[in-house]
Amino acid sequence: MNELYEYASRYTPCKKGCSDCCHYAVTVSEVEIAFIEKFTRVKRQKTFSSKADFHGTPCPFLKNGSCSIYDVRPFVCRRHVTLTSTNTWCNPNISNNETFPLLRFTSLDEAFDDIRRESKSFEFYDIRQVFK
Ligand code: SF4
After folding, report:
1. Which residue among 29, 55, 59 is best mutated to probe the pocket of ligand 1, counting the most ligand atoms within 8 A of its Cβ?
2. Domain total in the chain
3. Which domain holds residue 55?
4. For ligand 1, atom 2, which residue shows the shortest CA distance?
5. pLDDT tier at 65 (50, 70, 90 boundaries)?
């Protein structure tokens, strides 16, 4: 993902400090929750919130406009890259008003699904249901 992202970075307005997409739904599976816990000091909540729609709410790991768990961020964050000429449509207040074609990371998606299957990590949660 890092290599692909480095290539795509020539064509994207995404840059450090722009965190609009950290206000969208951020799905995490059990294997990613365990990965975040293992490499950060943050532990999951004892009871996950039942709220499901967090669009517009910042991710708990967004600190001063940057990802505080960048090296262990969820797969969905690694896949997110904008290929429009500006980040105008990334604004969570208008991002749902349009649809844009998405890059497909088919083989990586399949590899990620294999990891989830092997670790019996079938459920998805929003990161804000799990971490504060
Ligand atoms: S984990 Fe990091 S990159 Fe992903 S939404 Fe949260 S702050 Fe943004």
Report:
1. 59
2. 1
3. 2-130
4. 67
5. very high
Question: Cβ–Cβ contacts within 10 Å for residue 30, how many?
Answer: 17
Whether residue 21 is predicted with pLDDT greater than 90 in this model: the reply is yes
CA 59 to ligand 1: nearest atom: 6
Q: What spacing in Å lies between the alpha carbon of 117 and ligand 1's midpoint?
A: 23
CA of 119 to the centre of ligand 1 (A): 23
The answer, yes or no, to whether any atom of ligand 1 lies below 6 A from the CB of 67, is: yes
Is any atom of ligand 1 closer than 6 Å to the C-beta of 130? no
* pLDDT digits 0-9 by tens, 103-130: 888 999 999 999 999 999 999 999 999 9
Question: Does residue 6 have a pLDDT over 90?
Answer: no
**pLDDT at position 100:** 84
